[in-house]
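#structure-requests
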Amino acid sequence: MLGHFNSITAMASNAAKQAKLPMAAGSPTLTNDENAHKKKSFQSCKTSVAARCAPPMSTIRSDFPDIKRLGIYFGIYMSVGTTCFYTLRNHIRGHKTNDFIDALYLCVVTMTTVGYGDLVPHSFLSQLVCSVFITVGMCLVGIVVKIAANYLVVKQQMVLVNALHMARKIGPMEALEEIESLRINYIKCLISLIAMAVHFVLGVFVLVTVEGMDFTDAIYCACTTMTTVGFGDESFSSEFGRMFAVFWISTGTSCLGQLFLYIAEVYTDIETRKLVKWVITSNIIARKDLEAADNVEVDKVYGAADFILYKLKEMGKIKQEDISATMKDLDVDDQPVSDVIPAQSSQKK
């Protein structure tokens, strides 16, 4: 992971240098129509940081083999686990209904780490098989985490690269203004929460109507199940209830994991936005901007220090009062650089 982070940092540094070189080399001046066209093309895709800079389809398709392979692995995993538990049904104790449904139910409860404890292995062979089953399941969970992490990392890389490209295309200050106006997309988190709420209500309904639990016990059982706590004092005991639990527990834990992924995605978008702003801001000052600020007619030439002060004022990092106080302490004339440079910058634009 550290090596991958270093490669991302190197890529960002190289991209930042490439974004700065054309500005320092004195690229051709754009006409107002060309500049307006580029601004319009940038604003037309103004939705969210993630949606505007989503990974390309070629990158997304590259993850499909992993997802398909993972689905095959889980299918084999469930089939082998159900077969083993069905074969060892006499080595499993607890409240039983249908042998096949009980084996599939125990497989799902174990795989999702709910672990009610209403069906447990009680012989050495069944305990050994169950231990191997749990270990393999944790390896499959690791593959799921790897795919999710790859999605977030690739997305962060594409946001950075696309933002640097847009900064070169329309200018760093315009790009910063557009990034400030973008909003983080919380729709997927909201949809996931609604899906979990519907899923929770459905589980409570079945627990009350089929399993005959009190309303409070049903809420308690649904909550401990969806969070994979599974104390086991309340669980599914009927044949239909366990058949329903096979699908309900699987989809419920999946919804919970998806919600966590969307929350991590939102946090990643926020942090990536900060990174993009930092990279673009660090490359704002260029030779072309300094040359444009010079007033050759009145024999006034501004250096990098003057332009840095102006940029800090423009970004709201310092105020004119701070500059004046510092100049007074140093006993230096407070030349109003920030009043002259904007006029030159406006002429350039």
